[in-house]
Amino acid sequence: MKRALITGITGQDGFYLADYLLSLGYEVHGLARQTGLEYIRGNLLRDVPPELYQRCHLHAVSLDNLPGLYRLISQTPFDECYHLAASSFVGERLADGYQTIQNNIASTHYLLAALQEFQPGCRLYFAGTSEMFGRPSMAPQTEETPFMPRSAYGISKLAGYHLVRNYREAYGLFCGVGILYNHESPRRRPEFVTRKVSMAVARIALEGSGTIQLGNLKARRDWGYAPDYVKAMHAILNHDHPEDFVVATGVLHSVEELCEVAFSHVGLDWRKHVEVNTDFYRDEEAVPLTGCSAKIQRELGWRPETTFVEMVHRMVDADKALLKTGVVE
Ligand code: GDD
């Protein structure tokens, strides 16, 4: 039986990855802050199979707890480590991004150093992001597109990526990198636009009235479905050699289309419920963030399975069910 460690197991991707690895017969361990563990304990009340986290070995160790991290990695052998933990809100102002930059870079470095010291044979997956491209010069982006991050988060992830690449080249660690574009699900946190919309649609559908305030409705993203994307993470770590792979749908949709699909799913006209609030505006790219996943399709046989419309419908349905339980996040 293979044993995997997931940092950030309480997040959206950590949840779906744990579920997927358990289905493949892995023994799954997860690192989380104590507050993260309290969050999922509360969350056991809600939609997901409650036994999922009970089938994992959870460790209340944050990545800045060096003694805790080193103790775990020196005592338990892992075949694979998925490094997903990170502060990840792109909308944060650069001038406020100290913690994001410091924590995301330091945690990646601590983890790499611990693996190199105690478990150089453990494979490491690093969660890269389209935000490393930031303001790209071309679309779609590939593994060869120059990086140009434009947010604290993107800068921290690019620094983490260079650390990972250096450990791969200098010390021979098996470090696989997925450069993932936006990926969403009913477990997406509410500050991200897809979940913000699905929660509002569920609320408005149940209450019969209401509005939601959004930023730029013309903004476009390459949105995929998180449960599809965690399969790419596993495929990347189980490749013959460690490489970087873009993971994307290659299809762009606007926030306006998101609203149209979500509201029409409950029989409502989005125009009557959506208000624009420029406080939520960000600088938008002249060249859109959209990825070419030809390499991972060709070399690892991965491709997105769930369409944008299916994903949005699932998110709205899940939020309607959640609201009916009375358990609100
Ligand atoms: N959050 C938010 N709220 N975004 C809005 C809103 C709003 O009210 N109105 C319009 N948008 C636009 C944003 O300007 C952006 O163009 C798009 O909707 C998506 O924003 P987010 O859902 O916040 O995601 P993101 O693209 O900034 O970042 C996500 O995807 C990246 C790529 O995978 C995050 O998950 C990052 O951590 C991740 O790296």
Q: What's the CATH H-level homologous superfamily of the largest domain?
A: NAD(P)-binding Rossmann-like Domain
Question: What is the CATH topology descriptor of the largest domain?
Answer: Rossmann fold
Mean pLDDT: 93
Ranges with pLDDT <50 over ≥5 residues? none
β-strand percent reads 15-25%
Number of helices: 11
Helix content: 40-55%
The top-level CATH class of the largest domain is Alpha Beta
| Assembly classification | single chain
The SSE order reads EHEHHEHEHEHEEHEEEHEEHEHH
Largest sheet: 7 strands, parallel
Q: Name every ligand kind in the structure.
A: guanosine-5'-diphosphate-alpha-D-mannose
In the residues, how many domains can be counted?
2
Instruction: Describe the strand arrangement of the main beta sheet, using strand numbers.
Output: 3-2-1-4-5-6-11
Span from first to last CA?
A: 35 Å
Shape: globular
Q: Quickly give the CATH architecture of the largest domain.
A: 3-Layer(aba) Sandwich
Structural class comes to alpha/beta
Whole-angstrom Rg: 19 Å
The number of strands is 13
Characterization of the model:
With 329 residues, this protein is α/β, with parallel strands linked by helices. It has two domains: 3-183 and 223-247, Rossmann fold (3-Layer(aba) Sandwich); 186-221 and 251-287 and 306-325, UDP-galactose 4-epimerase, domain 1, CATH 3.90.25. It has helices at residues 12-23, 34-43, 51-54, 66-75, 98-118, 152-171, 193-207, 226-237, 255-265, 294-300, 308-325, and strands at 3-7, 27-32, 57-60, 80-83, 123-129, 175-180, 183-184, 212-214, 220-221, 224-225, 244-247, 253-254, 274-276. Strand 1, helix 1 (12-23) and strand 2 form a beta-alpha-beta unit. The protein binds guanosine-5'-diphosphate-alpha-D-mannose (GDD). Guanosine-5'-diphosphate-alpha-D-mannose (GDD) is lined by residues 88, 90-91, 129-131, 180-182, 191-193, 196, 214-216, 219, 221, 255, 280, 282.
